[in-house]
Design brief:
Rossmann fold, two-stranded antiparallel sheet, globular
């Protein structure tokens, strides 16, 4: 995330959700807000992601780290992000991939939890949103995806020792099964198409008036005796 936001410029930036992650630390935008952080005055009142207290076209950068997954209406939250971003503004999104080893463990844990045999590996209130589904939402709202990446190909181990044993899966997974990473990362740009003014189809084109051409009278033409092909005008 630091690499993605370091060269994004503007005047106003907002991180919505997950205050434990300093997503704007590497960014140089002067006015930055970290919503839902109790230590940030005036920013901890944002509870509805689909109704942000910002005017339209006012933010240059917006970070959504796992924010859509906990939103009551993720599609409405994404529409609200499109509203507050300026043209050519950027939104950075990361989320859990529902097609991954981590998601598989989460589904298994939910099944076992009903029997009292296990606990969840990931937060229970999150709703996983598919990578391609999110890209479709962004395209419908006029966003153009600049960066799309996957990561975390190791199995969902809680033990650090077992995580290190499967460290080889990260470089191999990025090459051979890239879409099965546990986490995906997106950077999208808000595009605003320009308008082309068209003239009315019913407006008839003006036809230039014909210019009269003078025709010489036969009485004004004489043939010279020396050269019959030569004509002189009186």
């Amino acid at each position: 995330m630091d690499l993605a936001v370091t060269n994004i410029f503007g005047f106003h930036a907002l991180q919505l959700g997950l205050p434990e992650l300093p997503g704007l630390a590497a960014n140089r935008i002067p006015h930055r807000w970290l919503a839902n952080d109790a230590t940030t005055a005036g920013a901890d009142f944002i509870t509805d992601y689909s109704a942000l207290p910002f005017p339209a076209n006012s933010l240059d950068l917006m970070l959504l780290p796992h924010s859509l997954e906990v939103a009551s209406d993720p599609h409405a939250a994404l529409r609200e992000a499109e509203r507050v971003l300026v043209p050519e503004g950027r939104v950075v999104i990361c989320g859990f991939n529902p097609v991954s080893l981590w998601a598989l463990r989460q589904r298994r844990a939910r099944l076992y939890r009903r029997l009292g045999l296990s606990h969840l590996f990931l937060p229970d209130d999150g709703k996983f949103i598919g990578y391609w589904r999110l890209r479709d939402w962004l395209g419908l709202l006029g966003f153009e995806v600049e960066i799309g990446r996957f990561g975390c190909y190791r199995p969902a181990f809680s033990n650090e020792k077992w995580l290190q044993r499967f460290n080889w899966m990260d470089p191999v997974g990025a090459r051979w099964w890239p879409i099965f990473g546990a986490v995906y990362f997106l950077v999208a740009v808000k595009r605003v198409r320009g308008m082309t003014l068209l003239s009315p189809a019913w407006k008839a084109a003006r036809i230039p008036a014909s210019v009269p051409v003078s025709v010489a009278n036969s009485n004004t033409l004489k043939m010279t005796p020396n050269n019959e092909n030569k004509r002189t005008f009186d």
